[in-house]
Amino acid sequence: MALLSLLTGMGVLTCDLGLAQEAPCANGTVQVQPEDTLSRIASRCDVSEGALLAANPSIDGSGDLQVGTTLLLRPKTGQSQRLGDRLNHFGREANEAVGRIAGQVGSSAQDLLDKNPDLKGRLEGLGQRFGLGDGASAPSLTVTPDQGPAGSTVTLSATGLPKDEPLMIGVGAPNTAFQVLQSARTSEKGTLDADVKVPERQGGTRLVFVLRSGDSVKLTSKPFRVAP
Whole-angstrom Cα distance, residue 141 to residue 160? Predict the structure, then answer.
């Protein structure tokens, strides 16, 4: 009887663990956790990254994931994208690819494009050709200083943004889900200057600050180094 009780208890424990593993992906949705990426969510919930992107049109990459929000795991039946939406998506994918490359070489997307005028011209020309841009100056985001201890204050400065628009300021590790720090609003000139505190973190010495407002504002800073 003691052995049977032990086996039963182990069975219950195993069942509970299984439920705990399945719960985050129950009912066709999943909640974004700190440090999440599209690949981690896809692996955890046994879906493809493509399905996640198709089911959540506002998400173009891991850097758009907001901690605490809920994502659909698969697109709804009959859900489709218009040609213009797909072109916008491809354009944003190109933008994200440039951002990833910039992060790997310790630069910002804008710096990378400025140092490669041929690439910048081709991307701007493609955007204008498909109506993805208005020819205005490209949005940019800088962080001053670019390193400092947790708890210190940094200044975020952005230009080329929509005028007088509310947005979120967030922070996270490069190419992972971000945590919202505070809200802000752009000026009548489409600029933003905001002071934020560098959060305490467990592990990792690099952070990126982000500005988000739906699909209209998606900016990520050059990596900030958390100094001892």
Answer: 9
